[in-house]
Structure formats: C-alpha cells, structure tokens
C-alpha cells in the first residue's frame, strides 16, 4: 500500500518547515553559473573531524611551519615565526621595492583571499581584523617564496643569507626543505595561488615565475600521493591524504 504522508500547513513543525523551504526555493537562484561562482571562491578547506579520527589526527597538521590562518599560532609551530619575518626582510630588501607595495598588492585582493578559506573564524574577518589578515598573508607568502627560491637554487642563497643560516642555506635545503615541502601540502595549511601571484608581480614578474615551476616543486613532496584525475587547484596543491 502506498504510504500516506500529510503535512499540515498550520502551526505544526512540519508546516513551519514547508513555509520556510518554500521561501528558500523562491528566493534561491540555482543557475549553474551562479552556483559555480559561489563554490569557486573556496580553495582551502578544513579536514572534517570524522576523517581525522579515521587516521592519526596529527597526520593532518603541519610539523614545522604554519601557512595561512588555520594553524597560525599553534604552539609547536611558533619557532618558525621568527624565520618567516626574516624572510620578509630579505625578500623585500632584495626586490628593491618598499614593503608598502607588497602590503597594498595583497590588501587589494584581501576579500578574495579571505573567501578562499572555507569556514574561516571570525577572528580573521571584519574590518577590525583585515590588517592582521593581510599581515599574515604577506608574511607567510614571502616565507614560501623564499623557501621555493632556496629549493630552486639548491640552497645556494648565500649572497644575502649567512652560510650557516638555520633555514635559508645549504643546511636548510638539505635538512629542513623536505619538512617545509611536506607541510605545504597539508590540506589545512595552504596559501592561495593568487597570493603568490600578487607578491611575485611586485617583486619582478620577469625574474620570478609562479605556476609550473612552483607546482612541480611541491608535486614530489614526500609521503604524498595525488590522483592523476585531480581537478586543477586555485592554490599550489590540494591533497587531503595523510602522511
């Protein structure tokens, strides 16, 4: 027999749901182009707790350096903050451009960068927190560019770093780069590609190319696997697989 299902349009819970959903259906634009634009904003996501609990949850956390807001301030990653700030100093001095140009370039796309992070907390949003977010993006972006430069030069960056620099040196390339590279592909520890593009344009887009070279530099990150059918990313890598 057919199951009879009746919803009252009165004051009951079912009726309230129907009224609410009918309003939503009437208001919502389900044009595929509109939906595509809505979801295209996000490119960095949090790993659901259910998935983390299936594995070692630490496998989804960076080990050495935080990149972006999700793991910023984690106590075990704080020692690298000093080296991030040093990276900003070296990159800006070497570029010959004032820091304010880098900040302005990132601030212009701050809304897009904020939107890239799905479920980003209120501590980063709003007018009062915009400056703090831009500072984070500039700092982490400069660090990543300097780390990739170190990789491209196989650690031979002694023209503006000391030979015994703990991070940006032959030593750093041999002993730390694999950890940095691995942290770069942690799904919650990503920087939007747009950020690097903005920084590189200010530096000198003829000398620093973002795209294939940078993508290849992280594609061989240790302990990671990427499906050959993975969709194109809007950041360097998007791999939710554990180490």
Keyword list:
disordered C terminus; 11 helices; mainly alpha; single chain; DUF247_pln; disordered N terminus; 243 residues
The poorly predicted ranges are: 1-5, 7-11, 208-243
Percent helix range: 40-55%
The total strand number stands at 0
Distance between the termini: 53 Å
Give the biggest beta sheet. Answer: none
SS-derived structural category: mainly alpha
Mean pLDDT: 78
**Which percent band covers the strand fraction?**
under 5%
The helix count comes to 11
Coarse morphology: globular
Taken in chain order, the helices and strands follow as: HHHHHHHHHHH
Radius of gyration: 22 Å
Task: Give a verbal description of the structure.
The protein has 243 residues and is mostly helical. The chain has a domain at 66-221 and 230-243. The protein contains eleven helices and no strands. The chain has helices at residues 13-27, 32-40, 49-54, 81-95, 99-107, 110-116, 127-152, 170-175, 177-184, 193-204, 212-219. Residues 221-243 are annotated as: Disordered. Pfam families: DUF247 (PF03140).
Quick rundown:
Residues 221-243 are annotated as: Disordered. The protein is built from eleven helices and no strands. By secondary structure, the chain is mostly helical.
Q: What is the element layout, followed by pairings?
A:
Elements: H1 13-27, H2 32-40, H3 49-54, H4 81-95, H5 99-107, H6 110-116, H7 127-152, H8 170-175, H9 177-184, H10 193-204, H11 212-219
């Amino acid at each position: 027999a057919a199951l009879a299902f009746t919803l009252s349009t009165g004051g009951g819970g079912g009726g309230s749901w129907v009224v609410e959903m009918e309003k939503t259906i009437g208001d919502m634009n389900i044009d595929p182009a509109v939906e595509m634009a809505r979801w295209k904003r996000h490119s960095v996501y949090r790993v659901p707790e259910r998935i983390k609990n299936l594995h070692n949850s630490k496998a989804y956390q960076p080990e050495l350096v935080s990149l972006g807001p999700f793991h910023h301030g984690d106590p075990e990653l704080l020692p690298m903050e000093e080296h991030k700030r040093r990276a900003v100093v070296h990159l800006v001095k070497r570029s010959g451009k004032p820091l304010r140009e880098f900040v302005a370039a990132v601030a212009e796309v701050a809304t897009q960068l904020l939107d890239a992070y799905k479920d980003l907390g209120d501590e980063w949003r709003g007018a009062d927190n915009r400056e703090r977010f831009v500072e984070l993006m500039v700092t982490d972006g400069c660090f990543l560019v300097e780390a990739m430069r170190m990789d491209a030069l196989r650690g031979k960056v002694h023209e503006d770093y000391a030979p015994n620099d703990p991070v940006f040196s032959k030593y750093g390339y041999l002993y730390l780069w694999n950890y940095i590279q691995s942290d770069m592909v942690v799904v919650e520890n990503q920087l939007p590609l747009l950020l690097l593009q903005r920084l590189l344009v200010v530096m000198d887009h003829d000398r620093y190319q973002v795209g294939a070279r940078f993508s290849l530099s992280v594609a061989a990150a240790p302990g990671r696997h990427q499906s050959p059918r993975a969709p194109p990313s809007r950041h360097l890598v998007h791999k939710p697989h554990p180490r």
